[in-house]
Specification:
It is a single chain. The chain is α+β, with helices and mostly antiparallel strands and 265 residues long. The chain is built from 6 helices and 11 strands. A hairpin with a 2-residue loop joins strand 1 and strand 2. Helix 3 crosses helix 4. It is globular, with a radius of gyration of 23 Å.
């Protein structure tokens, strides 16, 4: 009787897993010292999904730590040098040794509970290519519409300043004779060109983003800059718990939190 019961329980468990993950997405489980996190990887980002699956099959992540944890922001890991992490050392410079082409879409953004790849900044990486192994889990916070409006203004101001700087650098070049008349002409031209560029690149959160960021939460200022390639379907409470641990001045947890990743489907 006991054997039959165990067999039935096993079948129920298998059917439950099949029902949960009966779509055509890939799923992975991140097992941590604080519990398990199940992540659905997106089909819309095939390069990132395939890369994460390959690293998982190679047991690349086994024994690494979350080296960067910031409350109300992110939980980050994937630096291979953290496998035998030295106490108090700053990590976050290494990955699997290559980059992944960006797969950034307006419809996939930094809502709470997604997974995304870290990367180097635009100054050295204007194509926004992703790190091959360093990923982060989004915690973020809930925003009001007023806060989103202010954030839009801030992001557009920053984008405008960056655009104008590029235009000035391009128009001035190596000019040595910077007389007032010439500078005034360049300034006017930069203003006109910047206006035109900002009409195309103007940052504005769409209706869906606003709905999510004012209810679920997330990190809206990262949208359009990093590739989001999946979302947590089980164990977000584990991420929340990790995000609240004590950290040092480099945002590294005082007590190492190790993890490994396994393929669920």
């Amino acid at each position: 009787m006991k054997i039959r019961t165990l067999v039935l329980l096993g079948l129920v468990s298998m059917l439950s897993c099949t029902t949960k993950y009966n779509d055509n997405n890939r799923y992975v489980k991140i097992s941590t010292d604080e519990g398990d996190i199940v992540v659905k990887l997106y089909n819309e980002t095939p390069k990132h999904t395939e890369n994460f699956i390959k690293l998982t099959e190679d047991n690349f992540f086994d024994g690494l730590i979350f080296h960067r944890v910031i409350k109300d922001f992110v939980v980050q890991g994937g630096d291979p040098e953290t496998k035998n992490a030295e106490p108090g050392k700053l990590y976050g410079e290494k990955d699997a040794g290559y980059l992944i082409d960006a797969e950034i879409f307006d419809t996939i953004f930094h809502k709470r509970g997604v997974i995304a790849m870290a990367r180097e900044g635009d100054d050295v990486n204007p194509e926004k290519k992703s790190s091959s192994s360093q990923f982060y889990l989004v915690v973020g916070k809930v925003f009001t519409d007023e806060e989103l409006n202010k954030l839009e203004d801030k992001l557009n101001k920053k984008l405008r300043e960056k655009t104008e700087k590029k235009l000035y650098d391009s128009l001035l070049g190596s000019q040595s004779n910077l007389n007032p008349k010439f500078l005034n002409e360049v300034t006017q031209k930069v203003s006109i060109l910047a206006d035109s560029i900002m009409k195309v690149k103007h940052i504005k959160f769409n209706e869906n983003q606003r709905k999510i960021y004012t209810t679920v939460g997330g990190i809206p200022h990262l949208d359009g800059n990093y590739t989001v390639f999946g979302e947590i379907v089980e164990g977000y409470d584990v991420v929340e718990k990790i995000s609240q641990v004590q950290t040092d001045s480099n945002d590294r947890p005082l007590k190492d939190i190790k993890f490994k990743v396994r393929i669920v489907k």
